Amino acid sequence: GHSYVVYGPLAAGATTFMYEGAPDWPKPDRFWRLIEKYRVSIFYTSPTAIRSFIKQGDDWPNGRDLSSLRLLGSVGEPINPAAWHWYHKVIGKERCPIVDTWWQTETGSILISPLPGATPAKPGSATRPLPGVKAEVVDEKGEPVKLGKGFLVLSRPWPSMLRTIYRDPERFKAGYWSRFPGRYFTGDAATIDEDGYIWCLGRVDDVINVAGHRLSTMEVESSLVRHKSVAEAAVVGAPHELKGQALHCFVTLKQSAQESDALTDDLRQWVATEIGALARPEKIHYVAALPKTRSGKIMRRLLREIVTTKSVAGDTSTLEDYSVILKLSQQGKEEEEILGEKSK
User: Fold this and answer.
1) Burial track 284-312 (b if 16+ CB lie within 10 A, e otherwise)
2) Model pTM greater than 0.70?
């Protein structure tokens, strides 16, 4: 945040527009109203925020003049193709390039990203490493994967790389350098295609093993969001006697849709048709909102706790709206039961 909100723009002599409060108050068009009023030219947000805009409908952005925009950005997590297309069409009016960026707090700068107007876009892919950056997809043994799925690593130093973890150098070595010696392990899963484009699938922890098959939560979430009724989706694994893990899908619906048994069956079949029978969700949870950090990232860890232990014991300090977790209990538990000792 500091790099791209404060230091970078100041060093480049650019103007950064900042505001206080939520993006949907007092009305869902707050972003678009501010862009119109202050003639903002570059808009950089998260895929989670984009999906929440989709849920609100096209009328809000279409009711504002967004002609000042010349570049759109996406950051924080992989963007699913359906959200990319909506962003490009409704916000960018099919004329603004989308810069889908991959980076981490630890990397200090964007490392994988298209160059606006120069790199052909593929919706959902961060495309290729920037000049001077050597990013690779490797298998379990650390061998480069030419085509297919693996682990995302960085094989060459870069100027803004992290140097250590404060007062914990052993954790620094164990967390980032021990898995693949000589390479920085990002902790992300990714695929690489025939054009050398990298498709980030999310954290390795977000890969679910169903009956011996490794499924990316990003892959299943993207399938769900492509359905005409779904605005947002988050997928986690829960223990299953036969499969080892089963898919539990939390979805928020578009305003035009209503939850029903028929829709549940349709969504389960939709995923099975798009990905395969092994990806058929075990359970669909309809929710009004998903737990997110203040920066807009979905906190899947909390959802995982809910489906496995029926309570939340982990850190919730970065949770934007505490009430979302309480509402997620489908069994109508009281606050003490859901949050355990944290509420006492």
Assistant:
1) bbbbebbbbeeebbbbbbbbbbbbeeebb
2) yes
Short-list 141, 80, 63, 74, CA closest to 103? 74
Tens-place pLDDT, residues 105-157: 899 899 999 999 899 999 999 999 999 999 999 999 999 999 999 999 999 99
Q: What is the CA radius of gyration of the chain?
A: 20
Tokens encoding 50:
């984009």
For residue 204, CA distances in Å to 13, 153, 187, 217, 332 come to 38, 12, 6, 10, 32
Angle, to 10 degrees, between the axis of helix 261-274 and the axis of helix 217-225? 120
> For tokens 């160059």, what's the residue?
115
- DSSP character for 53? H
Q: What SS3 class is residue 319?
A: strand
User: How many helices (H) and strands (E) would you count in the chain?
Assistant: 11, 12
Structural domains of the chain ordered from first start? 2-100 (3.40.50.980), 135-196 (2.30.38), 204-343 (3.30.300.30)
Q: Which residues pair with 235 in a beta bridge?
A: 249
Which tokens in the block code for residue 263?
A: 């829709």
Strands 244-253 and 283-286: parallel
The C-alpha atoms of residue 223 and residue 284 are separated, in whole angstroms, by: 14
Burial of 323 (0-12, 13-18, 19+ CB in 10 A): exposed
Average pLDDT over residues 202-226: 85
Where are the alpha helices (H) located in 121-276, listed in sequence order? Answer: 169-176, 217-225, 261-274
Q: Which two tokens stand for residue 71?
A: 């570049």
What lies within 8 Å, CB to CB, of 159 at 6+ separation is 108, 109
Q: Where are the alpha helices (DSSP H) in 178-299?
A: 217-225, 261-274
Residue whose C-alpha is closest to residue 145's, from 136, 157, 133:
136
